[in-house]
From TrEMBL, chain A:
Keyword field: Coiled coil, Signal
Species, as recorded: Alcanivorax sediminis
Gene3D superfamilies the record matches: Porin
Record-linked InterPro entries: Porin_dom_sf, Porin_O/P
Positions in coiled-coil regions: 17-44
A Pfam family assignment: Porin_O_P
Signal peptide location: 1-20
UniProt name for this protein: Porin
């Protein structure tokens, strides 16, 4: 009798035990769902995970500079050099939009010094886990500063002249770019895109920098291709080489021959124990049909050493040599050497105060050797 | 122009063909189950660490990251594992981090969504975190940067500090 009672109790207890276990699981699930909802409400003010704000990203950067030319009595300048806003939108995990909208020099418009610019506007597709396709208007994959130029990421108030006059950063074009990560820190990019237009009335070449059409009703008669290989397989090391081919930097100007151009840029940067060593070289070679012999070859070399004394404070020294064409029919190029030394102080990791001194030396006849020596102070931020 | 357009057109078509062929691929480099299988011979059942306001503030002061009011974790052989999301530049990076004896036992990038800084996914970079511990509110070692990926590198350091802090909050057996 006793045995039967125990057996009956055991049998009847089974569903209750199962039910209790089931209830605990249900309870856990309910807690999880409620917790997720509370988190979502706290973060977004709405419930559910498909909030449009989750897909939108906003960021930006800016820099304000003061340039004091030590050997001149005038032309010192205070300038809100750049004010930039980023807007991005994730359509899904694999397709996203990114854009960069910039106001340069504070005021834009008729007779004003600045410009309103659309620097980037592209759709990026993760084609596989290791490949991406970028379609639209993007930064050309050349140099160090062109793609990463938030002011808190580099030393010096102004960007170095190699990446201003030879690699005309900030340099964007429209087209398609395919990128692949081969693993082990080796990546490559290949892009087909719009080209430069260096043609000036009369057939003399314009400056490389002035050849940027900025995808503003750009002359699209001739295009360009850029390839880059990058190796960053050792922590602290970044090495890259880019080659660009321009079909015709005169954009098929009537009555003029084709002027093709090739840009080769290479750089290496290594950081160890707070010290960073950088060396960079860039060189253009244009067809002789460019019409001015001096403009056929233009190049620059930059070497920089920096040292972070603390997390917030760093010092640097930079040497830049340039040989470039000012545009026009000058028989000789401008040869210029900049020697810069200065400090960066990061108030917080993404806000930097900067100060530096640059001694400019011209090897070109007729140039005042001291005219461009300057002390510069700036503040830059990104978010 | 015609010649260029033709070449560019073919190049683009080829790329789009490659894209369509491989559109099934995931940008997940390591799934959570695979990460856990890598960490444990027998994957333990997950548990939940609940955090009050004071703990969250403490976590934020140490790591720069708010852990929220609960964190799922796995614990076995004195080793805890955490799945942590941190923002790099403007997208979340999903990391699997294991901690044993107050040191990072493994740091793996599970999902990387940023356009730049792919290198941080690779073992040659993440192995810098192996055996890292907290020392006076910081990691006890310098982590070498990657040009153009500073924000992602910083995000990984914040996540490592958070995982070490979370592990320190577990009840001592």
């Amino acid at each position: 009798m006793f045995k039967r009672t125990v057996l009956a109790m055991a049998i009847s207890a089974v569903p209750f035990a199962a039910q209790a276990e089931q209830s605990a699981e249900d309870l856990q699930k309910q807690i999880d769902i409620l917790a997720q909802e509370i988190e979502s409400l706290k973060e977004n003010g709405t419930s559910g995970s498909s909030n449009v704000l989750d897909k939108l990203s906003i960021g930006g950067y800016g820099e304000i500079h003061y340039n004091n030319y030590t050997e001149r009595d005038n032309n010192d300048q205070i300038d809100a050099h750049r004010y930039v806003l980023y807007f991005g939108y994730d359509y899904n995990d694999k397709v996203r939009f990114f854009s960069e909208f910039e106001l340069e020099h504070s005021l834009a418009g008729e007779g004003k010094p600045g410009e309103v610019e659309l620097e980037q506007a592209y759709i990026e597709i993760d084609t596989t886990a290791n490949t991406k396709l970028r379609l639209g208007q993007f930064l050309v994959p050349v140099g160090i500063l062109n793609e990463t130029h938030e002011p808190d990421t580099f030393y010096g108030v102004e960007r170095n002249n190699l990446e201003s006059k030879i690699v005309p950063a900030t340099w964007w074009e429209a087209g398609a770019m395919f990128s692949q990560d081969l693993g082990g820190g080796l990546t490559y990019d290949i892009a087909g895109h719009s080209g430069l237009n260096m043609f000036k009335a009369g057939g003399t070449p314009n400056k490389i920098r002035s050849g940027r059409q900025k995808v503003a009703e750009a002359n699209g008669n001739k295009g360009a291709m850029t390839g880059r290989v990058r190796y960053a397989g050792i922590p602290g090391l970044d090495m890259a080489a880019s080659v660009q081919y321009q079909q015709d930097v005169f954009q098929a100007a009537q009555g003029f021959d084709t002027v093709s151009g090739v840009l080769v840029e290479a750089h290496a940067r290594y950081s160890i124990a707070g010290a960073t060593f950088t060396i960079q070289h860039a060189e253009w070679e244009f067809d002789e049909e460019i019409g001015v012999e001096a403009a056929e070859e233009q190049s620059g070399l930059m070497a920089e050493v920096s040292y972070k004394l603390t997390e917030k404070f760093g010092v640097f020294a930079r040497h830049t040599e340039l040989d470039w064409n000012d545009g026009g029919a000058d028989l000789e190029n401008t040869e210029r050497t900049d020697s810069t030394a200065g400090v960066n102080y990061w108030i917080v990791p993404r806000v930097a105060l900067k100060a530096d001194y640059t001694d400019v030396h011209y090897d070109t006849d007729g140039k005042d050797n001291d005219a461009d020596d300057n002390v510069s102070i700036g503040i830059g931020w990104s978010f | 122009m015609r010649v260029f357009a033709k070449a560019a057109g073919w190049a683009l078509l080829t790329l789009l063909f490659c894209a369509s062929v491989s559109a099934q691929a995931e940008d997940v480099y390591l799934s959570v189950p695979d990460f856990l299988s890598e960490q444990y011979e027998t994957v333990p059942k997950p548990a939940m660490l609940w955090l009050d306001e004071a703990q969250r503030k403490d976590a934020e002061s140490v790591s720069g990251e708010d852990p929220g009011f609960r964190q799922r974790y796995w614990l076995s052989d004195q080793k805890s594992s955490w799945v942590i999301n941190v923002i790099g530049r403007d997208h979340p990076i999903t990391l699997g981090i294991s901690v044993k004896d107050g040191r990072i036992a493994a740091l793996r990038v599970l999902i990387y969504r940023e356009s730049r800084g792919w290198e941080v996914r690779h073992p040659f970079f993440t192995r810098q975190f192996d055996q890292a511990a907290m020392d006076n509110g910081k990691l006890d070692r310098g982590i070498d940067n990657i040009t153009g990926a500073t924000l992602s590198v910083n995000a990984l350091q914040r996540a490592a500090r958070l995982a070490l802090w979370l592990d320190s909050q577990l009840p001592q057996e």
